[in-house]
Design a protein that fits this description.
Blueprint (H helix, E strand, L loop, with lengths): L1 H10 L6 H16 L4 H23 L2 H19 L1
Helix pairs in contact: 1-3, 2-3, 3-4
């Protein structure tokens, strides 16, 4: 259940509003540092979203539309590595 909740947060981090992005980054990092959740669950949800975007890019050949979203997810993964 927690994985689906994190998945929803990760999907909503692509909003153009910078305040929402910063706040969601803080929530994602909090969940990654939490002893019961951990970085593996968070990273797994982010990778699921990256795979969805990659499959949509392959199927529709629309990389320019999905590029900011993909870069945002990679940025979140980079936060988890720090």
């Amino acid at each position: 259940m927690m994985g689906s909740f994190i998945g929803i947060i990760v999907q909503n981090t692509v909003n153009a509003n910078i305040r929402i992005q910063v706040s969601s980054d803080k929530v994602i990092v909090f969940f990654a540092k939490h002893s019961n959740i951990g970085p593996f669950v968070v990273a797994k949800e982010i990778i699921k979203n990256i795979e969805k975007i990659n499959s949509s890019i392959i199927n529709s050949q629309v990389f320019t539309v999905k590029k900011p979203t993909l870069l945002r997810f990679y940025g979140i993964l980079q936060l988890l590595l720090q």
